[in-house]
């Protein structure tokens, strides 16, 4: 049973799995606390989430360990197959209190301070689900065998990819009316942790969430955002900002006017674009001004299915983006589509046709192909099947993933004000992981 529970934990993508090495070595197992129904790409199915580690009695396992060159070989009835683990890696990951501070969750022993050629196991033994090693300096290390397996590449990558796919629901326009994205009342969100969890879960799974019935003010908007996140300071402001077309001399950025703005992502010229964007349309006295949201990761997957060569080039060819105005000089060169280095799934989209540079990093001999690839991508972005157009109303706070979602607007008349802020990407990931909705 312990083996099946640990594998379920890994499949769930619980990031704490990697910390199993540093939990109690003896009698460690995993307790399943709750099951929730989730939407997965391609259909709805139940997956297991929300686990915690618990110390519990475990059955006796048949295990054996031996020294094989630079490896420790572990054979156990708990394992799918024998493990061969480098002995320096094992010494580096000793979980004893001398080597690892459990309270701070930080290493106390630095293997690089030693002469690694002198690090040798003197004796190894496997007893049930525990591996014990006596080193040549008589230091003793004890490990849980299943936690060792969980931290080997084959097992880790397989479950990382599975968990990442499970944490996302990729959508097109036809899905919007039926998919269960968060649309939560402001007061419930402020006072109920379960409602707060619904919001961060929705942002992670669908790329966005909505808080409704927000008082129409910057302070109330700020309170709503701070219920989950710390605000990011940018050149737009120390945290909150107001984006409007009626204050003269505010900015030369087209976002402050009333023109149509095509689908794009923000901060493409920065080394790390903001993770989340928060928008609350507090004022609009005229017509037009419909907003656009679109799942960029779904568009990337459409490219993967229909134009794999185009995706390969757009995820490897560098384009320089720039933002040069109002005393700001920001430049960054990277592919438009960034893929996760482990899973190969989309991680970030840097797409802003307004802020492209002269593409000087690309040789002219490759320019023709690049324009063809961009044409394919833009056709997918402009396809009505992917576009969700709607009217933002006062009292609705939209929070969406800037690394994933395209956004835009139609032209408008009258006065229009959007109050909002950015959230740092690392802050967003931290909150999502603490809510167990992301690896």
What does this structure look like?
The chain is of the alpha+beta class. The protein is built from eleven helices and 26 strands. The strands form nine sheets. The protein has a six-stranded mixed β-sheet with strand order 13-14-24-17-26-15. A four-stranded antiparallel β-sheet has the order 16-25-18-23. A three-stranded antiparallel β-sheet has the order 5-6-7. A hairpin with a 2-residue loop joins strand 10 (121-127) and strand 11. Helix 9 (308-314) crosses helix 10. The protein is elongated. The chain starts with a helix and ends in a 5-residue tail after the last helix. Mean pLDDT is 86; it is low at 7-20 and 23-58.
Annotation keywords:
439 residues, alpha+beta, six-stranded mixed β-sheet, 25% helix, elongated
Give the class from helix and strand content and strand pairing.
Answer: alpha+beta
How much is the radius of gyration in Å?
25 Å
* N-C termini distance: 24 Å
Biggest sheet features: 6 strands, mixed
Outline: elongated
Mean pLDDT: 86
Tally the helices: what do you get? Answer: 11
**Approximate strand percentage:** 25-35%
Percent helix, as a range, is 25-40%
The tally of beta strands, per DSSP, is 26
Q: What spatial order of strands do you see in the largest sheet?
A: 13-14-24-17-26-15
The low-confidence parts are: 7-20, 23-58
Write the layout of secondary structure elements.
Layout: H1 2-12, E1 28-32, E2 35-40, E3 43-48, E4 51-55, E5 63-68, E6 71-76, E7 83-86, H2 87-92, E8 100-101, E9 106-107, E10 121-127, E11 130-135, E12 140-144, H3 145-150, H4 153-166, E13 183-185, H5 186-191, H6 193-206, E14 208-212, H7 218-226, E15 241-244, E16 261-264, E17 276-284, E18 291-295, H8 296-306, H9 308-314, E19 319-325, E20 328-334, E21 337-339, E22 346-349, H10 367-382, E23 388-390, E24 397-401, E25 405-409, E26 416-423, H11 425-434
Parallel strand pairs: 13-14
Antiparallel strand pairs: 1-4, 2-3, 5-6, 6-7, 8-9, 10-11, 11-12, 14-24, 15-26, 16-25, 17-24, 17-26, 18-23, 18-25, 19-20, 21-22
